[in-house]
Structure to design on (156 residues):
């Protein structure tokens, strides 16, 4: 798989934020556990970006990598009857990223972004930057600023 386009899209979106720098890594960072190993940190400090389908509409949730998303809580918050994980195909179609490299901004379609309060447990978390070999260290409030995300509590 070629991640050049998605990586460049994220990199371009960061041009307005000179203090934010993508880290390219030789090791796979497509899961919180792998990213934590590659970065020498704990899985909780890895911010996973997951795509769900809420009554047919895609939504993104960003949460600490050591947490599980409670889809019942998410359904209540977004006012949906049914919430399920999006397929890999749908994730790519609506975000422009493949699972394991989903960045919560620089999306190809406008999708609501929900930021779980677990992200505030760390001064810095690492989000994917368009590839399964990249990470972007970012503070929770900066992530909110860039994504215009809504703070929620949807983890177990």
């Amino acid at each position: 798989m070629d991640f050049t386009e998605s990586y460049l899209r994220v990199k371009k979106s960061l041009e307005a934020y000179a203090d934010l720098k993508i880290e390219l890594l030789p090791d796979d960072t497509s899961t919180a556990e792998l990213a934590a190993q590659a970065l020498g940190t704990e899985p909780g400090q890895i911010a996973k970006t997951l795509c769900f389908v809420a009554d047919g509409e895609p939504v993104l949730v960003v949460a600490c990598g050591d947490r599980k998303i409670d889809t019942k809580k998410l359904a209540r918050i977004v006012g949906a009857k049914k919430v399920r994980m999006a397929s890999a195909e749908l994730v790519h179609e609506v975000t422009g990223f493949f699972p394991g490299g989903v960045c919560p901004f620089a999306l190809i379609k406008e999708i609501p972004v929900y930021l779980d309060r677990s992200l505030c447990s760390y001064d810095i978390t690492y989000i994917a930057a368009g590839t399964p070999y990249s990470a972007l260290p970012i503070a929770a409030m900066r992530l909110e600023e860039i994504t215009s995300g809504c703070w929620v509590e949807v983890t177990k």
About this structure: The first strand starts at residue 23 and ends at 24.
